Amino acid sequence: MNLQSVAPNIWFVQGEAAVGSSANRNFISNAGFVITPEGVVVIDALGSPALAQELIDAIRRLTAQPIRYVIVTHYHADHIYGLQAFKALGATVIAQQGGKQYLNSETASLRLSASREELFPWIDENTRLVPADRWLAQDGSLELGGERFHIQHLGPAHTHEDLVVQVEKAGVVFAGDLVFRGRIPFVGQADSGQWIAALERLIEIKPRVLVPGHGALSSDPLADLQLTRDYLRYLRQTMAAAAAELEPFEQAYARVDWSRFEHLPLFRAANRMNAYNIYLALEQQASQGLKP
């Protein structure tokens, strides 16, 4: 885990462009932190308690200030399984209230059970799901040590509860999984239409520097925001046409020209699944007479 400087007193660590496994300790997502004279604000908690502890140790090498807050961009496993390490230090966890839906779901429970097998020993019987101490119902801000953090809810998009965190003075935006830089994003059950709208809002913010949920630091945020947006648009355009014509998915997928995106990491692992999920969602919309 290598600390990378984002701006003065702002750092992040970059996970691998891979699927979570015991070999990579589920270190597949990014996390960041901001050091202020009154304490540290962390954004996301990584994919295992051991990784979170390693991040805590790295923070300790830079400052003795307490870790006061952890802001969760969304409640996906690779961003939250480390929360218990921060709670043990007394940090306050902040998240958007839509995260309750996932946290209390059977899906979250089953995912944790599966992770205890697939990601052992990094995820085990001692790993637990940690709720937020402060659930946000609307956009807000946090002030600490002369720094102001703008916290905006841009979901439902990648998840219901997507938050982005803007560090005002530095113009740095932590975008969570609204942005997968330099790789194919994971769509899952995302609202791809609203995700595109959320990316448009991020483009309007015009961040100087952007820290994605996955991938390298972006000093050219516009290009990276546009790439994720264009990928999602292309998925929707191609799959909408197939769904409207009742074209079977396999036939539709085979005829689409994927050349613009097939060179990106995880294309083979994620693209077919992404296309299928969007195809099903648009097919359902079409059956209900709704426009994509």
Explain how this protein is built.
With 292 residues, this protein is of the alpha/beta class. Helix content is 37%, strand content 22%. The chain has helices at residues 49-62, 77-80, 83-87, 99-103, 106-118, 192-205, 221-244, 249-255, 267-287, and strands at residues 4-7, 10-13, 31-36, 39-43, 67-71, 92-96, 134-136, 140-144, 147-153, 163-167, 172-180, 209-214. Strands 1-2-3-4-5-6-7 form a seven-stranded mixed β-sheet. A five-stranded mixed β-sheet has the order 8-9-10-11-12, with helices on one face. Strand 8 and strand 9 (147-153) form a beta hairpin. The longest helix has 24 residues, at 221-244. The chain is globular. The mean pLDDT is 95.
- Quickly count the helices: 9
**What percentage of the residues does DSSP assign to strands (E)?**
15-25%
Low-confidence stretches: none
Order of neighbouring strands in the sheet with most strands: 1-2-3-4-5-6-7
